[in-house]
Amino acid sequence: MTGTPDTRLIVLRGNSASGKSSVAEGIRDRHGRGVALVGQDNLRRVVLKERDTPGAANIGLIGSVARYALDHGFHVIVEGILYADRYGPMLDALRRAHRGRTHFYYLDVPFEETLRRHEGKPQTDEYGEEQLREWYRPLDLLSGDWESVIEAEHSLEDTVIRVMAETGLVAGPA
User: Fold this and answer.
1) d(CA 96, CA 60)
2) What's the mean pLDDT in 111-132?
């Protein structure tokens, strides 16, 4: 078992430029200290500098970092593309092991909106439409019925408020 009955585990999944990082940062900004952001891109691309392939080392590292933070009393937000076939078993094991409340969200954004949002990202020069098209998987949901879908028409603000309300996280002092 991992975490405590008071810790929250939130998993934000979706295609590139679907808003996962922005939602995670928005939640932490509102809640304040005590929320650990476990970003797939940071652990995979920055810490390990590896490609996203089946069985890659970052899969276990994401789970380990999330467990460590939960075990030390942090609420945890795991965010990333986190393809269901590659990351699903690790995420399911984390879900089953967590003692507190656990919530999974899939941010469903059409490919055309992904392209539009990508234009405003710092990585615009690193990869473009061809790479985004290769990565894109429509509605790549995890098996089981424990992932909520949030459609693209919901604003960042609405999504942050929804996730905080559903998970029981409260805004910290101003």
Assistant:
1) 16
2) 72
